[in-house]
Specification:
By secondary structure, this protein is of the alpha+beta class. It has four helices and three strands. It is globular.
Amino acid sequence: MKFEIFDLSARRIKRLNEFIKQELGRILQKETHQGRYLLTITEVDVASNFKSAKIKISIIPYDKEKEALNNLSKNIGRIQSLVNKKLNMKFVPRINFTIDKGAKSADAVNIILGKIHDNPQT
C-alpha cells in the first residue's frame, strides 16, 4: 500500500514537472527577454511537498546569464501569477530560477574535444 502511494506521488510530480516546463516555456517566450538572448528551460524539479519548483535554465550567449536572471527576478511575480492561473491546485509550487551549469560544461568539453580532434598529437 505504501509503495502504491509513493508511485502515485512520483507520477504526479513527474506530470507536474512537465506541465510547468511547458507552461513556463510559453509564458517566458511571450513575457520576457525580447530576443536579446535564447532562454531554454532544461529541467523542472518540483519538491515532494509541492511547495517549491526549481527551474533550471540555459542562456545563450552565456554572457547574458546575469541579465536573464535579473529580468526573471524582476518579473517573478507576474510569471508566478500566470503559472498559478494555469494550475488547478490548492497550493502552487513557488518558482525559483537557477542557471543550469551542465550546458556550459558540455560546451567546454566539446570545445576541448574539437581542439584535440583538429590537432591530433602523433
